[in-house]
Task: inverse folding
């Protein structure tokens, strides 16, 4: 739960057939890159739960709600598909209706920890695309957490080239036409 102006960002994980399928966001959306990093921390901790996420998966931020949403819901962050393999997300898949954000979550067996003393970490990245030629910078956050939920890395940035990082480059590719 994140708080700003007495209205919290509340996040509830959703699952389908025992797998992480997304997150219900209530109260309000995160208002800054730092708040998105905190959201990402919660998502990465869920990705670290054994068996919850079978492979690196892309999630889409959606401001539209399903019929009969829970009270206070503002939107959902839904799993769109794996990064690689069968049913993978395709380059340009989100070009027609660009979402306000894309997230990639990596379960522990699919990521190399940034700290050598860590053996099992889950990780994630959120890309909040901007429109650089209009002066709106790309923003992103990266989080790693060990299997106990301890943060091993947490970074947020604005005004960067998405090609500087593998996760943001892949997410930008999914957004490109």
Result:
């Amino acid at each position: 739960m994140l708080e700003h102006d007495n209205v919290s960002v509340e996040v509830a994980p959703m699952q389908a057939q025992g797998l992480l399928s997304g997150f219900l966001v209530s109260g309000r959306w995160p208002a800054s890159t730092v708040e998105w990093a905190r959201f990402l921390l919660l998502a990465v901790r869920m990705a670290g739960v054994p068996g919850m996420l079978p492979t690196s998966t892309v999630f889409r931020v959606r401001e539209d709600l399903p019929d009969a949403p829970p009270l206070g819901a503002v939107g959902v962050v839904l799993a769109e598909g794996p990064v690689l393999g069968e049913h993978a997300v395709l380059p340009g898949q989100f070009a027609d209706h660009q979402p306000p954000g894309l997230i990639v979550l990596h379960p522990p067996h699919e990521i190399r920890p940034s700290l050598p003393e860590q053996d099992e970490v889950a990780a994630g990245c959120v890309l909040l695309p901007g429109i650089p030629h209009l002066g709106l910078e790309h923003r992103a956050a990266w989080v790693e957490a060990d299997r106990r939920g301890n943060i091993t890395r947490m970074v947020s940035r604005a005004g960067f080239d998405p090609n500087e990082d593998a996760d943001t480059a892949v997410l930008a590719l999914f957004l490109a036409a």
